[in-house]
Amino acid sequence: MLVPGVVFDHNSNSVANREFKFKNVASPSKDDTAAHAKLTLIDGELDGGSAELAALTDGRLPRDEDEPGSNVYFRAGSSGGRFRMDFGSAIEIAQVNSYSWHPNSRGPQLYKLYAADGSDPKLNLDPKRGVDPASCGWKLIALVSTLPDGGEMGGQYAASVSGLGKYRYLLFDIYVTELYDNWGNTFYSEIDVIGG
Ligand SMILES: [Ca+2]
Ligand SMILES: [Ca+2]
């Protein structure tokens, strides 16, 4: 069995543009497997300025570095939240690629990715914060953190988790990037799922 690996990439503010091109991660896709998945908010609240959850899989990208309505992000001042992706049946998942863009602390990504194939009778599809998904039928796949070691936080980020296996559900447990102010909830532009 493959051990999931995580690759990150970053375009700094000075070079990030609407093309979302990266050295180590493919650009976002319009017709990947996630385009047909069902997205459900499990915990937390989206910000009033955020796009609907469906914007994560619509293949559309922000054209500018600070375009709230083209991104999905949790409420300002909150600590993030959780959402679920359902493919309808278990499928082979080769990659999960997440993309974000913001000129400051809402640029980097910090989340835990869980997966479930749906066969575990004690699977809880809606574990709220405070319930460890690993205790109710989910498998922790990866901790994704693109947080820089100091320096510029802003820019465009891509994270790619590969070698997952066969699953029906993905759970994204999304965290704030910093607690200095209310503006640490990442602007997620797109999440692609590449079938195996
Ligand atoms: Ca997509
Ligand atoms: Ca999008």
Question: How would you describe this structure to a colleague?
Answer:
- The mean pLDDT is 96.
- The chain has strands at residues 5-11, 38-43, 80-102, 110-116, 139-145, 155-175, 188-195.
- The protein is globular, with a radius of gyration of 16 Å.
- It is mainly beta.
- Strands 1, 2, 3, 4, 5, 6 and 7 form a seven-stranded antiparallel β-sheet that branches.
- It is built from no helices and seven strands.
- 0% of the residues lie in helices and 40% in strands.
- The structure holds calcium ion (2 copies).
Ligand names: calcium ion
Structural class: mainly beta
Q: Approximately how much helix is present in the residues?
A: under 10%
Alpha carbon gyration radius: 16 Å
Largest sheet, strands/sense/barrel: 7 strands, antiparallel
For this entry, what is the oligomeric state of its chains? single chain
Architecture blueprint of SSEs:
Elements: E1 5-11, E2 38-43, E3 80-102, E4 110-116, E5 139-145, E6 155-175, E7 188-195
Antiparallel strand pairs: 1-6, 2-3, 3-6, 3-7, 4-5, 4-6
The protein binds calcium ion (CA) (2 copies).
One calcium ion (CA) binds next to strand 7.
Brief characterization of the structure:
The protein is 0% helix and 40% strand. It has 196 residues and is an all-beta fold.
